[in-house]
Amino acid sequence: MTAPPPLPPAKAPQTPPALGFCFDRTFPPALVTKFARELEAAGAQQLWVIEDCFYTAGVSLAAAALAVTSQLTAGLGILPAVARNPAITAMEIATLCGLAPGRVLPGIGHGVQEWMGQMGARTPSPVTTLAEVITVVRRLLRGERVSMDGSHVHLDGVQLDRPPVPSPPVLAGVSGPKSLAMAGRTADGLVLAEGTGPAAVRAALRQAEASDGFHVAVFAKLCVASEPAIAYQAMAPFLAGLLDHAPARLRALPFYDDLATRYATRGADALATIPADWWGQVGPIGTLDDARAHLDALASAGANSIALAPEPDAATALAQLDAVGALLR
């Protein structure tokens, strides 16, 4: 049996982007309620919980955050498509929506293929698999009875007992051109990783051929200091790590060739002294005014949600919540 045609993307109102924060995969799980309460008190709209194998699990963290807040949206960034059966993925998302209607923003992605192999769940065609998973999850969340005999997904008359009302948009956490094109046909939006600047947001939307209502969530690496040079020095290793792998989102920078040459010839230390306007396209890095300018540029490029990604140290990240409050003010 062939899969039905994909559903049209869920419509979303045109509003200013929601500002949120990421709960890093390495943070002690018990801290998620503290982060959630403090973010909501500061006026933030979202907390994105990061699920990576084999760290902390996103669904349980999201449930804890939703249970102690009344306005905060929990983003799932991101659930690997093959780590759960898609019917179970839909059940878990629906349960979260039942706990907090309208406050769940799930993202589903390929998962790191090495990790999927470790679990015996690696798929020979990650793009096809993700398309099938997102398609059936969206249909199940909308209350449909679903049968599919696909390349990866095999369901026989599955229907949720309590589909969520409203049904949440399901976002694709992807980056490659084929995956972005698939997301535009199949998903309700995108989750884009740290280091995605305004140019990369525009490029992703072009590759997805996104229609109205397509929701773009961007993770933005945060580093705010009293002097820009302090932030640049602190973020030079982060930028060097990106350059070591040169993902598409980095190659979208208009000055990428010059940046890569500088790194190749002079090393990571030279990145701390790149021009301020280059840093302004990498992330909310520098002073508070620099960070605000970056967030404004992401919004102008088409971002609907912006999640500030902290340092991977819980104590440092808690201190960074002050910057979130300041940016909201």
CATH topology: TIM Barrel
Query: What is the tally of helical segments?
Result: 13
Strand content: 15-25%
Named at the architecture level, the CATH assignment is: Alpha-Beta Barrel
Number of domain units: 1
* Overall 3D shape: globular
Provide the residue-averaged pLDDT. 93
H/E element sequence: EHEHEHEHHEEEHEHEEHHHHEHEH
Number of DSSP E strands: 12
Instruction: Going across the biggest sheet, name each strand in turn.
Output: 1-2-3-4-7-8-9-12
- What would you report as the Rg, rounded to the nearest angstrom? 19 Å
Task: Characterize the main sheet.
Answer: 8 strands, parallel, barrel
The CATH C-level name is Alpha Beta
Distance between the termini: 54 Å
Features:
TIM Barrel; eight-stranded parallel beta barrel; disordered N terminus; 329 residues; two-stranded antiparallel ribbon; alpha/beta; 17% strand
What is the strand and helix layout of this fold?
Layout lengths: L17 E6 L8 H11 L3 E5 L7 H10 L5 E8 L5 H14 L4 E6 L3 H6 L7 H16 L4 E4 L4 E5 L12 E3 L3 H10 L2 E4 L5 H11 L6 E7 L1 E2 L3 H18 L2 H4 L4 H11 L9 H7 L2 E2 L1 H14 L3 E5 L4 H15 L1
Parallel strand pairs: 1-2, 1-12, 2-3, 3-4, 4-7, 7-8, 8-9, 9-12, 10-11
Antiparallel strand pairs: 5-6
Walk me through this protein's architecture.
The structure is a single chain. The protein has a single domain, classed as TIM Barrel. Helices cover 45% and strands 17% of the residues. It has helices at 32-42, 58-67, 86-99, 113-118, 126-141, 177-186, 198-208, 228-245, 248-251, 256-266, 276-282, 288-301, 314-328, and strands at residues 18-23, 46-50, 73-80, 104-109, 146-149, 154-158, 171-173, 189-192, 215-221, 223-224, 285-286, 305-309. The strands form three sheets. It has an eight-stranded parallel barrel, surrounded by six helices. α1 (32-42) packs across α2, α3 packs across α5 (126-141) and α6 crosses α7 (198-208). It is globular. Mean pLDDT is 93; it is low at 1-13.
